[in-house]
Amino acid sequence: MADNSNNSRPHCEYYLPRKKRFCRMIPKVGDRLCGEHMLYASEAYNELGNINKQERKRIPCPLDSKHTVYEDKLEKHLKLCNARHTTLSDYYEKEVNSGHISQSISKRPLSDIPEEKVLHIINKLYKLSKDQSLSSERSILQHHSLKEEIDGNPDATNAIKHYLQQASIIGNMEKFGLLRSQACYIEFGAGRGKLSHWVARALSEYNNKVEFVLIDRANNRRKLDCMHTSNKMGPKFERVKMDIEHFNLAKYSFKADWDVIGIGKHLCGAATDVSLRCLMNTQSQNSKCRTRNSVRGAILALCCHHRCDWKSYVNREYFLELGFDEEDFNVICSLSSWATCSFHKGQSEGVSAETSTSVMHGKEIGSDSCANESNLGSAVFQSRLNQDFRQKREEIGQLCKQLLNVTLEFETILCEGAEVIFSNFYLQNELSIGINVFSI
């Protein structure tokens, strides 16, 4: 029989505002909070575990703030913490790909921005779109490596969506000469490694002449690279568990004379910027050290522009030249969520101030879910903007996304005449392709 001894024990008394319920973890005997939420404990919450009649304090781990540790056990914990292995890596360099800004304006909720300022920015966007084109070239392609999956799953809507996106990415890679032998493919924000898996399938004829490095800061289950690691004749796959912001690609060991190609699918907001900076830093350092590896190009599928931040943004100078400042940037990032807004005519137009405030101030904005972009867009300013702008909110959101994308084309770190092409496929995604943009 199953052990039901825990059923009678009380659960953690910490209330989770976002889930609107109490934590379901079971604390230690004598405690009222579980280990994760002991960080928020006061003297009234603890009955046991005191030192010299003083409360034992839990603090965030300095190596990984996602978990906590007792302060008096910190020294011992640091010797055993799993995050320690990341910081000891040869290619770990703290904030090497960040924007290196000492101070930046904190992001204010859109509901706190004066309506006049928001309307001024929107009018400025429309004027800018007339003066210079912000639209992007459509290049929706297919690739034979995914034909069987696409044809064999006509009713699997969600699966088909991803297959078509991956086919378009690989098709554009082939079009611009990024499917090649003697190349190392770096997948940023790899997740389960689906994109690398299908790129490897497309390059099956080259086998041992390509390698894949998959970078992600989280552990993932059901990884597709496991399908390749057991194949000794296939391409080499290696995982790097690290935040892209701290990954010094120039220190990574590549085969001599092999090109480096960056790939990524659904790089949310600032992740795109730190990935581009990672590649640019690699090329600049390799040119100084006269190494043989060069960055051939990059292809990145973008999303979640509302999660961009000024510190990481790669082309702040050009953005300022257009007459915008940091506060305008933050507003434009928030307005970009309107492009995927789920609010339509069939729904009630009377979104309450309470709903708007809860979405804007809640943790939903900073969460990792891309789906929150549509929730954010549907609740903002519905009761404040006039009807004309409310009907054009998706168009305004697209203008914001296009502005954030097109400024990458004028990134001054890239060589003169660099070609950056954006391809829109589906509502959320833009494809950024850089061809030989990092060549010396």
From TrEMBL:
Record function comment: tRNA methylase which 2'-O-methylates cytidine(4) in tRNA(Pro) and tRNA(Gly)(GCC), and adenosine(4) in tRNA(His).
Reactions catalysed, as given in the entry: cytidine(4) in tRNA(Pro) + S-adenosyl-L-methionine = 2'-O-methylcytidine(4) in tRNA(Pro) + S-adenosyl-L-homocysteine + H(+); adenosine(4) in tRNA(His) + S-adenosyl-L-methionine = 2'-O-methyladenosine(4) in tRNA(His) + S-adenosyl-L-homocysteine + H(+); cytidine(4) in tRNA(Gly)(GCC) + S-adenosyl-L-methionine = 2'-O-methylcytidine(4) in tRNA(Gly)(GCC) + S-adenosyl-L-homocysteine + H(+)
Protein name: tRNA:m(4)X modification enzyme TRM13
Gene Ontology BP annotations: tRNA methylation
Protein's UniProt keywords contain Cell membrane: no
GO MF terms, alphabetically ordered: tRNA 2'-O-methyltransferase activity; tRNA methyltransferase activity; zinc ion binding
EC number: 2.1.1.225
Metal-binding listed as a keyword: yes
Residue stretches making up the CHHC U11-48K-type domain: 58-85
Alphabetically ordered keywords of this record: Metal-binding, Methyltransferase, S-adenosyl-L-methionine, Transferase, tRNA processing, Zinc, Zinc-finger
Family named by the database record: Belongs to the methyltransferase TRM13 family.
